[in-house]
Amino acid sequence: MLKAYAGHWGLVTGASSGIGAEFARQLAARGMHCVLVARREDRLRALAEELKAAHGIRCEIVPADLSQPRAGRELLAEVSRRGVAVELLVNNAGFGMVSSVEETDVGRALELVQVNVAGLTELTLLAAKEMVARGHGGIINIGSIVSFQPVGYMGVYAASKAYVLHFSEALWAELRPRGITVTTLCPGTTRTEFFDQAGVPGWAEQNRGQDVTSVVRTGLKAFDAGRHYVVSGWTNYLLSLAVRLATRATVVKGTMSVFQRRAATHD
Ligand SMILES: NC(=O)c1ccc[n+]([C@@H]2O[C@H](COP(=O)([O-])OP(=O)(O)OC[C@H]3O[C@@H](n4cnc5c(N)ncnc54)[C@H](OP(=O)(O)O)[C@@H]3O)[C@@H](O)[C@H]2O)c1
Question: Which CATH number describes the domain made up of 9-264?
Fold first, then answer.
């Protein structure tokens, strides 16, 4: 758990847009100093200026490409060189891909695994070791509604988010008695740049995506309560439970129609 937000440091990956930028805004509003991480430095710089002016907090920006092996290790070393002890780590950086097997860019798929799985694992374990030594701290990892099921045409991404939930829940159980909270926030469709990057622009708007403010508020509330995971939105929560009632084949076949038309346009 955290000693306090105000006056302590939080590190948010993927802070240059969407859910990550909103995490930084809500943490800064609680008086937390922020380390902002992503590749787009101009965006990080603009957000840092905004947060410092609005909340009088301190902000560090660290431009980093988390698809590079060892990027997490180098990031934490840089943060430590700047004299920052990370009390709260928000592993939010990530991206998705919607594509049929034929059109899948295998290199991009492996980059996805590096950012969503390997990079997150490296940052989580290294930060958790420091937190265990201090006896307090917290980690919020961003899963997804697809953490609960495989999804046709989105197999690599959905599997990466299943990993995030399983890995993080195991750490929640292990580290809870050591004074560290590990919470997984599982958003449903949320209005960010995510679907533009994933190859289905406009998807979130067409499918009544949630806004980032409520998604992040839900995540922080669950973290404050020491919960192992939370799904944002009641409908999404019910969907995450509903998949337990059907056979695995029924569930995965049922997902095929979601992105099928989009994949077909590339045939
Ligand atoms: N939007 C949704 O419907 C939804 C639903 C469930 C879960 N999620 C999850 O929520 C998280 C945030 O996504 P979002 O919706 O806010 O999408 P977004 O607006 O596209 O933001 C993604 C963030 O990740 C960063 N990122 C991507 N690749 C990176 C890399 N190689 N190195 C460093 N940073 C990288 C991006 O920064 P740069 O491009 O500047 O590097 C950006 O700040 C992701 O983990 C996503 O899987 C989203």
Answer: 3.40.50.720
